[in-house]
Design brief:
By secondary structure, the chain is mainly alpha-helical. The protein contains nine helices and four strands, in the order αααααβββααβαα.
Length: 217
């Protein structure tokens, strides 16, 4: 037990497994609706674990994480107001406290996904722009699974109930820019826990899609 508590990675992985095991069981028992009210806290939990396990965390890492969160939030504000970036959509109440009609947790989500996917491709021997392109593609794939879950649990909704292709294109372009900045400015974005955070969240979305009879569009 003492070794577990002093081992950053194993402690974090254990906490992650415990929290999501409770989540999986809750869904199987028919409590998905109540469980999803905890989503804002889960995003904070995931971001905390990700930063805690960042091998190269330093001033640059922390600064760019903050830039990504702020930029992600502001992009969403412009997107909500104009409909020109992702399409016409509106945020519901499922992601907690909002400012300028955008949940504050959206910025946190951008940070987790950008640095999480950056860690997944960090070890590949590719040019930085190719790593950014690959990680951005992973982020869009993640969003494809997230969308039906998000709409079902009132994270956000789309005008006419249709998710435009524009949304995925914008996600890719914005993510690519953020990731390219990360690969140029952050010396080491390796993170052993990232694959578990992204992986277990993806599995959770898949479970909810089947449990709620949702359709991927």
């Amino acid at each position: 037990m003492k070794r577990l508590l002093t081992d950053r990675f194993n402690l974090s992985l254990s906490l992650l497994v415990i929290v999501y095991t409770v989540g999986f069981v809750a869904v199987f028992l028919g409590h998905a609706e109540s469980l999803m009210l905890l989503t804002p806290y889960n995003l904070l939990f995931a971001s905390g674990l990700l930063i805690y396990n960042a091998e190269g965390f330093d001033r640059r890492y922390g600064s760019w994480f903050l830039v990504v969160m702020l930029a992600g939030f502001l992009v969403e504000v412009v997107g909500i107001e104009t409909g020109l970036i992702f399409g016409t959509y509106a945020y519901g109440e499922g992601l907690g406290i909002k400012w300028l009609d955008v949940p504050l947790m959206i910025g946190v989500n951008w940070g987790v996904l950008v640095f999480g996917t950056a860690a997944l491709v960090q070890h590949f021997k590719l040019a930085r722009w190719l790593k950014a392109a690959l990680a951005a593609t992973l982020m869009v794939s993640y969003d494809v699974l997230l969308e039906p879950v998000a709409v079902r649990f009132d994270f956000w909704s789309w005008a006419g109930g249709t998710i435009p292709i524009q949304n995925y294109l914008a996600w890719w372009i914005i993510a690519f820019g953020m990731l390219l900045g990360a690969f140029y400015l952050v010396k080491n974005s390796r993170n052993r826990l990232a694959i578990y955070i992204i992986g277990i969240q993806t599995l959770f979305f898949i479970l909810l899609i089947f449990d709620q009879n949702l359709t991927i569009r």
